[in-house]
Each structure stands twice: as C-alpha cells, then as structure tokens.
Amino acid sequence: MSLLIMAQASTGAGGGIISILPLVLIFVIFYFLLIRPQQKRAKEHDAKVQGVQKNDQVVTGGGLMGKAVKIADDYVEVEIATGVRVKAVKSTLADVVSKKAKAAND
What we know:
alpha+beta; 1 helix
C-alpha cells in the first residue's frame, strides 16, 4: 500500500510540468511565427525610413506619393507635384523607393 501512495505522489509532481508544457509550446510557436517576423519587419522599415535620401520616391502613411526634396532629422519635405511641397514626419513614411533601385519589370 505504501508503494501505491509513493507512485501517486511522484505522478502528481510530474503532472504539473506536463500540464504547463503545452502553454510553453504555444508561446514558442507564437514567438517564431508572429512576434519575431514582425520585429524583423519593423527594424527593416526603420532602417529604410532613416536612410531616406534626396530624390527618393516616398509614400506617406496617408497615401501621398512624391519625391523627397529636403531631409531633416525628424521631417522630410516631399514634392507631390511641381511646386507643391508638403512636410511629413519621417516616422509616418510608409515606404521609400530609392532611385538607385531597379524596377521589377526592367
């Protein structure tokens, strides 16, 4: 009878670890499938926005497309039409297309 009690006690301690294991596994899967790629994309976007140069084609968060004319620390002056310039905060730029980049269909 004492062996039966010892066997139940030992499985009770292991049962706690086994019940937590699926939660840990789910977190690991979420980290590698959702969190890590999102952080990678955010770093790439920040590098692209901070590397904007004069005459680069930019797209603002509001959807305006234009050419970067003047670059400051936090602001970019974007020419959206001939003689029409707007000032945009760098962090609101959605995309930067460098003039050095080759078009996909060329």
